[in-house]
Amino acid sequence: MSVLERIQAEVDGHPIVLFMKGTAQFPMCGFSSRSVQALKAAGATQLHTVNVLEDPEIRANLPRYSNWPTFPQLFIHGELIGGCDITMELFESGELARMISETQRQ
User: Which helix (H) or strand (E) holds 80?
Assistant: First the structure.
């Protein structure tokens, strides 16, 4: 399986996927930490994370897959939502909670 197929499998296999530096329990950068906190505060109970620091192939190829240059990267229902700034804006507007509640109803 190619690295792009592995990325696709992660995105397809979980309603909410955060490609981040570190883990939800131990984020390794401030942007990843803030994104996890916002997702949890918005009600994400089924948050799947991928530690890009543990998988250099995913870290190198995810920006090409998503056309997004930085980490973290949030995907909901297979769609790239964006990075930390967008996640925080959606959280503050209440939109992130709505998006998350839709994933948990299905």
Answer: strand 79-82
